[in-house]
Write a sequence for this structure.
C-alpha cells in the first residue's frame, strides 16, 4: 500500500491527512505580541553590535600600543630600578651663597586620636608617654579620654616614633602626613634664617620677612651668608666669651663694596629644630635688635666729621691734659696724657678729652645731621624683622654732642654701626647692607656722606690705630688691617652706668690700601682675671684685649678661605697709609 502524501496546505506532516486546519485572520493581540518580539530582537542586535564595536576598538588600540609604537620611556622603565622623584613641597629652601642648605622641608607624620574609638585611655596614655619624650602621661590621658572625636597627640613625629606607635595597633590612633621645616645647620645661622611655626608660617628672621615668597616659589632663596665664615666667626667669639666669662657676644663680616653680610652671629644662640628649648636670651638677636652705647668706636664719626668740616687736620694739636667738667659730670681719659697731641694720636690712643675738644668746634645740629645721614638715628634697613630702634637724645643739646663724641648718650645696633663705619672706610659712600646674595661683581649705588679726601685720611687713621694704637692685637701680617677699638660702660637695669659691666668691641677693615672686608666683634660684659691664662690680658677687659685677638684670628682664617692673597707693603703703599705728621712714631698702650 502506498504512503499517503500530506495535504499541500498543511504545515504539520504529523497530522492525519484528512485533517485540514481552519484558516483565520490574526487577532489584534497577536499583532502586539509580534511587534514586541520584533522590538526586543532589534534592541539585542544593536546592543551586541555596540559591544562588538567597543571590543574591536580596544583590541586595535592594544595592538597599536604593544606591537606598532615605540614604548613610552616611563612605561619601558617599569619593573626597573629608578631614582625616586623629589617631592614638591609648598615652601622653598633657603641656602647660603654657595648653595649649602640652611632651611628645607621634609615630609613628617603627626599623630592624632579619635577618643571615641579608644577603649583603655589610661593604658594607652602610659604607652604613648614612653614613646613620645617630653609628653606627660596625665596630659595624654586627658586628651584620650575626652569626648571629642579628634585631638592632636603630637605633631612631627620621627620615623622611629611613628613605627613604635603603629606597633601598638590601636584603632583610635592615626597619622596625618604633613610638611616639617628643618634646619640642617642647627644654631649656626638661626638668628638670620629664623624659623616657622608647626603649620609652616614664618615667625622670625628670613623665614618671616620672605614668608610669602618662600610659600609661592620652589626656587631656593640664596642668602649672602657664607656658612663657612659663620662657623669661624662663632667659634672665635665663643672662645672669648668663655675665656672672659662674658654673658654673650655678637659679630659680623661684610663685603663693604657690595654691602653683602657674609656672616652674622649672636651668642648665645638657639636651635630652630628644637624650639622647646628656646629662652629669651638665646633668641634675642644682638646684632640687629640690640641697641647699645658703643663707646670709642664712635670716635670714627667724630673724627671724620671734624676733618670733613675742616675744623681739624691730622696734625692739629689739642691739649688733653685736663679733664672736662660740666655740671656734675667729668670727662676724663683712662690713661691721662699731660700734654697736647695731634688729632692722629687722639684717635690712636682713644682720648675722650681730645674728642670732646674736637666736637666743641662744631654745632650739635651739624653732628646730628651727619649721624642721621650715616643711618645712625633711625632703624637699620636690612631684610629681617628683628630691628632695634636707636636711642637718640631729644632735644640734642651741647652736652649730648660732647658725650656722643666718645660714644655715650646715643645707643645704636651693631649692624647700624657696621654699615656707617664701612661707609667711612669705603671712600665715603654709604651702601645698604643686605642678607640676600647679589650678582657677582654688582656694586649697589650708594650715597656720598664724606669727601674722598676725608675718607682717605680716615683710612690712614684706621691703619695707624693698628700699627701704633689700641688696635695692635688685630693686626695680621700681609693683610694691611685697619681698626678702631671701643669700650663702653653699660647702663644697668635700674639706670646709671655699671662700673664692671662693659661692652668691648673692635671693628676692622682690610686691606686698607683698598678696603674690601669688614670684621666686627663685640664681647658683652667680659670679666677680667689676672690669673686666667686663657685671657692673656693681665686682667684688662677693653675692646683691645677682648675683641682684638678674636678679630685677628678671624681674618687670618677667612682670608685664605676666600682666596685673598697677602699683600706686600711696598714703599708706595706704606707712604699712602702713613699720615705724614710729627709725633706719630711713638707706640701707645692698648686700651
Amino acid at each position: 500500500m502506498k504512503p499517503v502524501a500530506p495535504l499541500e496546505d498543511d504545515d504539520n506532516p504529523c497530522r492525519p491527512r484528512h485533517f485540514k486546519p481552519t484558516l483565520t485572520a490574526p487577532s489584534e493581540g497577536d499583532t502586539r505580541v509580534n511587534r514586541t518580539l520584533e522590538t526586543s530582537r532589534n534592541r539585542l542586535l544593536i546592543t551586541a553590535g555596540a559591544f562588538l564595536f567597543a571590543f574591536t576598538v580596544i583590541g586595535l588600540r592594544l595592538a597599536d600600543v604593544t606591537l606598532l609604537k615605540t614604548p613610552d620611556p616611563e612605561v619601558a622603565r617599569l619593573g626597573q630600578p629608578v631614582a625616586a622623584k623629589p617631592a614638591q613641597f609648598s615652601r622653598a629652601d633657603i641656602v647660603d651663597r654657595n648653595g649649602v642648605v640652611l632651611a628645607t622641608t621634609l615630609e613628617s607624620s603627626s599623630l592624632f586620636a579619635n577618643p571615641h574609638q579608644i577603649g583603655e585611655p589610661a593604658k594607652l596614655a602610659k604607652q604613648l608617654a614612653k614613646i613620645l619624650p617630653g609628653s606627660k602621661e596625665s596630659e595624654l590621658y586627658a586628651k584620650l579620654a575626652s569626648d571629642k572625636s579628634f585631638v592632636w597627640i603630637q605633631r612631627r613625629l620621627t620615623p622611629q616614633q611613628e613605627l613604635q606607635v603603629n606597633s601598638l595597633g590601636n584603632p583610635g590612633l592615626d597619622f596625618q602626613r604633613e610638611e616639617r621645616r628643618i634646619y640642617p645647620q642647627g644654631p649656626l645661622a638661626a638668628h638670620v634664617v629664623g624659623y616657622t611655626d608647626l603649620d609652616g608660617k614664618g615667625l622670625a628672621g628670613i623665614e618671616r620677612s620672605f614668608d610669602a615668597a618662600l610659600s609661592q616659589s620652589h626656587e631656593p632663596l640664596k642668602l649672602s651668608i657664607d656658612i663657612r665664615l659663620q662657623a669661624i666667626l662663632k667659634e672665635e667669639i665663643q672662645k672669648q666669651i668663655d675665656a672672659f666669662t662674658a654673658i654673650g657676644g655678637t659679630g659680623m663680616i661684610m663685603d663693604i663694596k657690595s654691602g653683602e653680610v657674609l656672616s652674622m652671629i649672636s651668642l648665645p644662640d638657639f636651635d630652630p629644630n628644637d624650639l622647646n628649648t628656646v629662652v629669651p636670651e638665646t633668641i634675642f638677636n644682638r646684632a640687629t635688635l640690640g641697641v647699645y652705647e658703643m663707646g670709642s668706636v664712635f670716635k670714627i664719626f667724630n673724627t671724620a666729621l671734624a676733618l670733613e668740616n675742616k675744623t681739624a687736620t691730622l696734625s692739629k694739636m689739642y691739649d688733653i691734659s685736663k679733664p672736662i667738667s660740666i655740671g656734675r659730670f667729668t670727662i676724663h681719659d683712662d690713661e691721662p696724657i699731660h700734654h697736647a697731641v695731634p688729632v692722629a694720636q687722639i684717635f690712636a690712643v682713644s682720648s675722650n678729652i681730645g674728642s670732646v675738644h674736637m666736637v666743641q668746634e662744631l654745632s650739635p645740629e651739624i653732628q646730628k645731621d651727619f649721624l642721621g645721614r650715616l643711618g645712625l638715628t633711625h632703624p637699620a634697613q636690612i631684610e629681617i624683622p628683628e630691628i632695634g630702634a636707636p636711642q637718640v637724645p631729644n632735644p640734642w643739646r651741647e652736652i649730648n654732642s660732647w658725650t656722643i663724641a666718645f660714644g655715650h648718650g646715643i645707643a645704636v645696633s651693631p649692624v647700624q654701626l657696621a654699615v656707617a663705619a664701612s661707609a667711612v672706610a669705603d671712600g665715603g659712600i654709604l651702601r645698604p647692607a643686605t642678607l640676600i646674595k647679589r650678582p657677582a661683581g654688582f656694586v649697589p649705588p650708594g650715597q656720598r656722606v664724606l669727601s674722598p679726601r676725608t675718607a682717605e685720611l680716615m683710612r690712614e687713621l684706621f691703619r695707624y690705630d693698628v700699627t701704633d694704637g689700641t688696635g695692635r692685637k688685630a693686626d695680621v701680617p700681609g693683610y694691611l688691617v685697619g681698626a678702631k677699638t671701643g669700650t663702653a660702660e653699660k647702663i644697668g637695669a635700674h639706670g646709671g652706668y655699671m662700673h664692671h659691666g662693659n661692652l668691648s668691641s673692635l671693628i676692622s677693615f682690610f686691606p686698607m690700601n683698598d678696603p674690601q672686608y669688614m670684621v666686627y666683634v663685640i664681647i658683652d660684659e667680659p670679666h677680667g682675671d689676672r690669673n686666667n691664662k686663657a685671657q692673656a690680658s693681665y686682667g684688662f677687659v677693653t675692646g683691645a684685649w677682648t675683641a682684638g685677638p678674636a678679630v685677628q684670628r678671624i681674618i687670618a682664617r677667612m682670608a685664605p678661605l676666600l682666596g685673598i692673597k697677602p699683600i706686600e707693603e711696598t714703599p708706595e703703599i706704606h707712604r699712602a697709609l702713613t699720615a705724614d705728621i710729627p709725633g706719630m712714631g711713638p707706640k701707645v698702650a692698648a686700651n
